[in-house]
Amino acid sequence: xxxxxxxxxxxxxxxxxxxxxxxxxxxxxxxxxxxxxxxxxxxxxxxxxxxxxxxxxxxxxxxxxxxxxxxxxxxxxxxxxxxxxxxxxxxxxxxxxxxxxxxxxxxxxxxxxxxxxxxxxxxxxxxxxxxxxxxxxxxxxxxxxxxxxxxxxxxxxxxxxxxxxxxxxxxxxxxxxxxxxxxxxxxxxxxxxxxxxxxxxxxxxxxxxxxxxxxxxxxxxxxxxxxxxxxxxxxxxxxxxxxxxxxxxxxxxxxxxxxxxxxxxxxxxxxxxxxxxxxxxxxxxxxxxxxxxxxxxxxxxxxxxxxxxxxxxxxxxxxxxxxxxxxxxxxxxxxxxxxxxxxxxxxxxxxxxxxxxxxxxxxxxxxxxxxxxxxxxxxxxxxxxxxxxxxxxxxxxxxxxxxxxxxxxxxxxxxxxxxxxxxxxxxxxxxxxxxxxxxxxxxxxxxxxxxxxxxxxxxxxxxxxxxxxxxxxxxxxxxxxxxxxxxxxxxxxxxxxxxxxxxxxxxxxxxxxxxxxxxxxxxxxxxxxxxxxxxxxxxxxxxxxxxxx
Length: 549
What we know:
Distance between the termini: 36 Å
Largest sheet: 5 strands, parallel
Radius of gyration: 32 Å
Strand order of the largest sheet: 6-7-8-3-9
Number of helices: 17
Structural class: alpha/beta
Number of strands: 9
Shape: elongated
Helix content: 55-70%
């Protein structure tokens, strides 16, 4: 299967899974939409009887009866619309919440190569596009009811009227072949431009002081202007495609309605159609015109939703959550592995293949030269990256998604602005604050941060770490991330060179903490530290592209 086919399949699974997730309120909205449309379509039909049997025949009782029937249809419209709106609003709100949760989880477990600004656009604009699509799904039931009722209804009035209305179908079908793909491509280009500009804005906000310090503010502003111009050009291009599509789509049924009124008037003069029938036809054609307009709107929204879903799937990895016809439940805990086996794994192109068996009770150390693939091997073991070659088995089964219960500490770990306590609470905070603080202090001591932070704050847990850990050294950020991983008590710890910036005494404490952790969980550490290599139960040596370790 080609990459584009895989992406399309992921998009379909994501959209179907999102809709299935909110199927309860969606079905309620569909029921309300059908009732509402039944009232809309019944009103012109009932009005035709009030005209023919009441106005034309001069029967006031008949006119009162049919007017009462029209009022009942109006009540149905109102009640159905209320149920429709409630269900649709609830469905899109729940869909948005679930998608943002999955974007959050995806960003925390991967989303490599995406800037913060672009991630925010995906969590905002792209999630919004899918939400709008979910909100509009009941409209297709309305369109189906309209077609199902009006085809026999128009035929009962006059076959020529049905022919006139049906003549618009081939024209609309031609538009549906030509324009959706054009609009999808233009919309995708605009979405990418949104993300690129958002990344630039994020860079400006984060690095404003530094840029002024080196006199680079003019350059970065020029880049922002260029990105904004590109975004404007792509947005105008997409809007132009949409404008042409919408104008033609709405113009075709309008012309059909005008021709139909002429044909209907001639039928009235010939006695083949009553005045009430002509009124019903006019009302129904107005409904058809409105249905076409709304249908075009929903179609463009579905195109936008596919674009948004494609960008979201790059973050949340929908293929990992929904597969083989199963529907994922966002927020469900992934499988926690007990044994991981890698067979002939090649983490990066040109690197050596390795076999590895990981289980609790053994500290495994990965070492090797630059570009040998140490960091990438850890990501492969975490399930957040695909190996160049080889296979990965988890508890005897092939790995198809990221693992649950895995804590990866990269060379440049995430450190949030706030206190040491705030960062450790990301690992596992409970309702017992005193017990949490005791655990936090214990792990700080295990990784040697108790001595580092002594004297910098009355309580080391209250120490402010600065934006992105700016108040800490690189090694302290790594050990703080390691402490967070130990607090979380993850089933798998993957540690990337966490002893590289530590002195001998601190490194010994960190290695001892790894050894204790490896007794009950899988621990894999990448690095060159002699203390770490000496403590390892197994050492995996990776070779770089030149064949050297």
